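Quick one, tokens below:
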């Protein structure tokens, strides 16, 4: 399923995103995904900052809990393993090339930057799992193979958890034990 509609950014979202990032957000277009708890996890950004500077990262991971978990995956060397597989698996390399092309097409439809640089090392290497996860969370599975793999690795680690976990239903039907948001 590929998502096509994103939510407008509310003032409350802007405040949450600023807290997540530790700075005011830049070039916001929309909330592209939310964690099960409801807070923004991915925003879609304009291809240029407010001052006109090119900003090629179309989907930006804002959830600090997710960003921390992804950083842990990067520290384990996952990106190096993924990049090595691009040379060994033609089907994977072709899917990654398609992810790159779709990313460029989406960004260029908003504001062409005049270059073929997308994000996260696409299409030749895997440079930033945050970008790939954001792409998958924004567009759904099947668009970015390394975003899909990153999401699966996070699920194996127990995500969504902590502040990302779904808020219990207030109708008395949810009896799950959840830890405190952190």
């Amino acid at each position: 399923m590929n998502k096509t509609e994103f939510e407008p950014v509310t003032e409350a979202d802007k405040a949450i995103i600023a807290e997540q990032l530790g700075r005011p957000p830049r070039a916001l277009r929309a909330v592209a995904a939310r964690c099960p708890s409801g807070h923004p996890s991915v925003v879609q950004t304009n291809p240029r900052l407010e001052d006109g500077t090119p900003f090629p990262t179309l989907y930006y991971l804002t959830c600090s809990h997710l960003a921390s978990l992804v950083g842990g995956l990067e520290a384990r060397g996952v990106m190096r393993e993924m990049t090595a597989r691009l040379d060994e698996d033609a089907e994977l390399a072709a899917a990654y090339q398609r992810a790159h092309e779709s990313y460029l097409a989406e960004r260029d439809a908003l504001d062409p930057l005049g270059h073929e640089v997308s994000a996260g090392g696409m299409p030749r290497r895997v440079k930033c799992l945050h970008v790939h996860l954001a792409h998958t969370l924004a567009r759904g599975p099947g668009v970015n193979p390394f975003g899909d793999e990153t999401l699966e690795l996070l699920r194996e680690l127990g995500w969504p958890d902590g502040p990302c976990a779904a808020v219990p239903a207030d109708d008395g039907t949810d009896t799950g034990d959840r830890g405190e948001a952190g």
